[in-house]
Structures are given as C-alpha cells and as structure tokens.
Amino acid sequence: MMNTSNLKIAVIGLGYVGLPLAVEFGKQQSVIGFDINTNRINDLKSGTDHTLEVSNEELAEATQLSYSSDIATLKDCNFFIVTVPTPIDDYKQPDLTPLISASKAIGGLLKKDDIVVYESTVYPGATEEVCIPVLEQVSGLVFNQDFYAGYSPERINPGDKEHRVTNILKVTAGSTPEVADFVDEVYNLIITAGTHKAPSIKVAEAAKVIENTQRDVNIALINELAVIFNKMNIDTEAVLEAAGTKWNFLPFRPGLVGGHCIGVDPYYLTHKAQAIGYNPEIILAGRRLNDSMGEYVVTQLVKTMIKKRIQVEGAKVLILGLSFKENCPDVRNTKVIDIVNELQEYNIEVDVYDPWVNTAEAQREYNITPVSEPVANAYDGIILAVAHHQFVQMGIDNIRALGKGDHVLYDLKYVFAKDETDIRL
Is 261 a catalytic residue? Predict the structure, then answer.
C-alpha cells in the first residue's frame, strides 16, 4: 500500500468540483488536472477560470498543479479522483456516460496498488456495480487485489465564497479498511474542516444523494404552501417570517429548483429504488411539484396581465437572470428555461438578461441569446428570476423603469417589499 510521500494525484474533470480540489492539492504537491475540453485546459493554463469558482490568484498559488487533455500524461499517477458530471437524460434517468468514459480512460492506465476515488454523485451501489467492472475489464486487474477504490462525495456549492472545499467537512470511504484509512488521510491533507469516514462506499454514496433529496422535498413543501397561500391571498413570505420565529422551523423559501444537484440527485435515488422494486412516493411527488413551478409562475404572470388589461399575445417580457442560482454563471439544469419556454407558448416575446452568464454557453445549452442590456420602457412584464447582486443594487425604481407605463413585475426571489411588486411567489 502506498503512502502520502509517493502520492501522485490526477483529478479527472475540471469543472465546479474538480478544479477547486485540484488547486488545493496543487498548493502542496504534484497534481495533474485532466479534462477532455481542450478550451477549458487552455483557459486554465492561461490562469483563468470561467466558472469563477477559483480566482486567478488562487490558480497562481497552485504551483504544483499542471493541466492536460491528453490521458497518457496521467500514466505515472497512482491516486485518481473522478469529478465528472452525473446528469440525467431527457427521460429523467441517470446518465452515467461521463462516469463510464472516465472509468474506461483510467482503466487503461491502472497499475498495481493504484486507487481510484469517485466524487461524482451517484445512487448507492453505482461505484461498485458500474464503475469497478469497467476498471477491471479495461485494465485486466482484479479489484481489491491489484487496485482499490474509494468514494468521497463532493459538497461544492457554486458561487459560495464562504463554504469552500477546504472548510466543508468531507465524507470519505474506501473499498477495504486500509484503503479507507488512506483515502481519509489523503483528503485530510487539504480539508481543514476535517473528515467523516463512512463504514462503506455505499453508505457514502447514499449520504450524498439524500443530502440534496432532503432539500428538494423541503422546498417542494414550501412551494406547495406558496401555491395554497396565493389562492388564499396570503403573503407567503409573511407567513414564513412568522413561522420562522420558532427555534426549530426550517428556513426554506419557495422558488425554482434547478442546478446540477438538488434538481438532479433525487432521480438517481428513485432510479435505484425502482430498480429494487420500491416506488418512492414522497420523493417523486416533490420532484413533480418542483418541476412544475416554471409553468405556475407563467400562469400567475399571465393572469395578472389579463387583470391589468395588458394584451398577452405578442407581449414582451423581460426575465432577469438565467443561471440556476444567484451570483454564479452556472446554467446547468436552470429552471428559468422552463419559464422562457412556457412564455413562448403564449406567443410572448422573451428577453433574458443575465450579466453573469456566458452568451455562447446560453446559446449552446438552450439556443437562446441573452440581451447585452435591457431596454428602458420596453416590457409588458418583468420577472426577477435570479437574485444577482446587480439586480439588488439596481433598486426597484430602475427595474420598474424597464417596464412600459403599465406592466407587471413578478419578484420570484423576495428581493423587494411586497408593496413594491405586483406578484411574489
């Protein structure tokens, strides 16, 4: 078994999860960061991270980190950390293609006593049932005899500058007790918050997937309450503020539930549950409700426009924000696109403005081109969908000035007071 003195780390996948991890390891020892996206590699070599998770200064501090899009450069590595995406497909089923591709690539490099650690979110059992067989088949080596595996679920929160990879407690696990100890030791080299060593890989996988499933169900409850309170003409935010005075009330808020975690992870768990013959009712009900919120928002907007005698068909609506959360450029699985698509069903012309989002990425992902600047006095409806600090700083008067003399302002994020807006979720 290796020790940390001869550790040669490779991080496979340099997105929101992999890059911060590679940078922290690269501040103290040799690390190769690998990504199949050559443009991404070139940007990082030039000292720029377009995801904005890592500053240029932090990149410069990782003096022992190198970047490559050539898998052969990882041949001397002995500790592989896999941080590739685990999305869902159009049928809301787990798409393990990136994970399997990464496993095949690593399998071609595996040597005696190498360790492969997965950080990508999966259902319980996926590492040992899907990834390990690929590693064995490609390498010709025997699991837990010639090579070993670990699992340490990522807990990155995109756009969060307070909770970073080093100060978030890390769950670790290994395929044998000895490997578990070593994996835990490796992560403790950089995790100042400490680690929690799970008793098995399956336990660590399950712990990760329920973290976001729990949040998803809680938000679904609040979304349903918002729908109920809106029908009763009761201000949801006022209700939540009143209930929040109790010490153990959980401070969730209604809204769109997108992104690469909360809006995706529950489907991994429900997929596995159904595969073993159990139909998860609460989790799927929460998913259905959260997935329907974009349609609900548009229905509320259209009803309010009609009440104000604003012509709906041919109207022009501005959506402020496209990314899945505030102060972050990440547009993966953003539910703002549901609002865009639903508005277009009414033959409404839609402009999207988001100062954080890369235009080319928005075009590639959703075939929409955000406007560079919204035009004043041009919109029949304005939806404040993402609470970027720029929108907060604009203030209510400047946002209202974007609308025509008679328009509807829908504040999804409770940025402004109830009496300053026309609708709040």
Answer: yes
